[in-house]
Write a structure and sequence with these properties.
This protein is of the alpha+beta class. It has a domain at 32-57. Helix content is 42%, strand content 14%. It contains one helix and two strands, in the order ββα.
Length: 57
């Protein structure tokens, strides 16, 4: 994520998921703040489900 400067405010959140095999640039996404919040909620929901299945078994 790149932080804003006074002359360039943030209007998108960027997500870099890392390099692909061979060192090539990997996938990335440019999200609006609302999209980033929705993705964060979905990821946290998945974390909760993963933790529940780990503790249940």
């Amino acid at each position: 994520m790149h932080l804003a400067t006074p002359d360039h405010p943030i209007n998108r959140v960027t997500l870099d998921v890392g390099q692909e095999r061979g060192g090539e640039s990997g996938a990335w996404a440019a999200l609006t703040p609302d999209e980033a919040r929705r993705l964060a909620r979905l990821l946290l929901d998945q974390v909760g489900l993963a933790e529940e299945s780990t503790h249940a078994g």
